[in-house]
Amino acid sequence: MPLTLWLSLAAICAMGAMSPGPSLALVLRHTLGGGRFTGVTAAIFHAFGVGFYALLTVWGLGALIAGFPLLFQLITWFGAAYLAWLGIKALRAGRAGALEPSAVATNRSQAAKEGVLVALGNPKLILFFVALLSQFVTPEMSGAAKAIIVLTAMIIDGGWYVLVAVVLSHSQILPWLQQRAHWINRITGVLLIALALRVVAGPLV
C-alpha cells in the first residue's frame, strides 16, 4: 500500500475514532467510574470490535464491488447521508451530548464486555466501514494490504481511546472539556459533513 494512500486511510480512521458518540461516552464513563486502567480496558476491547468490522469489510466488500457495483454505490450514498445526518446532529447538539457520561462504579470485566458490545452495536461504525473504509478495498488487493487496513483501524481506534482514558483520568481535564463541548460538537459536525461530501464525490482509490 502506497504511503500516501495509507495516510488517507489513517486520517479517515482517526476522524472516525475521534468523533463524539457512544464509544467516547463509554470510555469516559468507565474512566470516571473505575479509574485509568478500567478506561484503558474499555478502549482496547472497543478496538477489537472495530477490528471485527474492518475484517468483514476487507473480506466481503471486494466481491460486492466486483459483482454489484450499483448496490455498492447505493450503500455508499446511504452511508454518506447518514454521516451528513450525524454531522448536522452534532452541529445542533450545543453543549449536550457524548461528553456528559454518568459517573458510576465499574470494573475491568464490565468495561471489556461493554467495549466490544458498544463497537458491534454502533450503527455509525457499521456505516463508517461500508461508506468509507470499503473504498480502500479492491478485488485484487493482497492479503498484506488487507491486514494493513484492519490493523490500522484497530490501532488508531484503540490508541485514541487509550489516550482519552489516560488524559481524562486527571480530574481537571473533564470539566475543561465539558465547558467547551459546544465547540467540540461543532468541529465534529463540520468534519462529518465534509466526509459525507467526499464520499459522494467519488471513490478514494
Automatic annotation (TrEMBL):
Keywords on record: Cell membrane, Membrane, Transmembrane, Transmembrane helix
Membrane-protein topology: Multi-pass membrane protein
Membrane-spanning residues: 35-56, 63-85, 116-136, 148-171, 183-201
The keyword Transmembrane is assigned to this record: yes
InterPro entries in the cross-refs: LeuE-type
Annotated compartments: Cell membrane
Name of the protein in its database record: Amino acid efflux permease RhtB family protein
